[in-house]
Design goal:
This protein is mostly helical. Helices cover 53% and strands 0% of the residues. The chain has one domain. The chain is globular and about 70 Å long.
């Protein structure tokens, strides 16, 4: 009886690992981004990173952030060169100690925000709020951001 219970537990664990869907930008992240973020961070309204940095007050007064509407743009704020930025902005406060300024936009209620945050966390892999100067190679190796 114990052997059967042990075997059943192992089979459930293995099947969960085998059938767990990998979170990707195309299937999971882009739809969230398009629904929740594109109005302020899309191609038609948001400046490139360096243009934003030249005149941040101008862009923020318009309610605009840096462009992030493509995979290449978004990973810029995940892995390099603006390492951890997306994580600091979207975090619910459980990692960084304070809620990021963009967390509230992940959903219309806390349940939706937590669901979308989990997808972002699963997509990134190593949800770190560290900046480039503080991140280690081991930290970088754990970042997934699958296309």
């Amino acid at each position: 009886m114990i052997a059967r219970l042990f075997l059943a537990t192992i089979l459930i664990f293995v099947s969960n690992q085998v059938f767990a869907e990998e979170v990707t930008y195309r299937k999971h992240i882009k739809p969230i981004f398009d629904a929740k973020c594109i109005a302020c961070h899309g191609q038609d309204s948001a400046p490139e990173y360096y243009a934003f940095k030249e005149e941040p007050d101008k862009w923020m007064s318009k309610g605009k952030g840096m462009r992030m509407d493509t995979y290449s743009h978004l990973i810029f704020y995940t892995a390099w060169p603006d390492t951890g930025s997306i994580m600091r902005r979207l975090d619910d406060g459980k990692v960084a100690g304070k809620e990021g300024n963009m967390y509230v936009y992940l959903g219309s209620n806390n349940e939706e925000r937590q669901k979308n945050l989990k997808l972002f966390k699963d997509w990134v892999g190593n949800w770190t709020t560290k900046r480039w100067k503080d991140i280690t190679k081991e930290d970088m190796d754990k970042i997934k951001v699958k296309y």
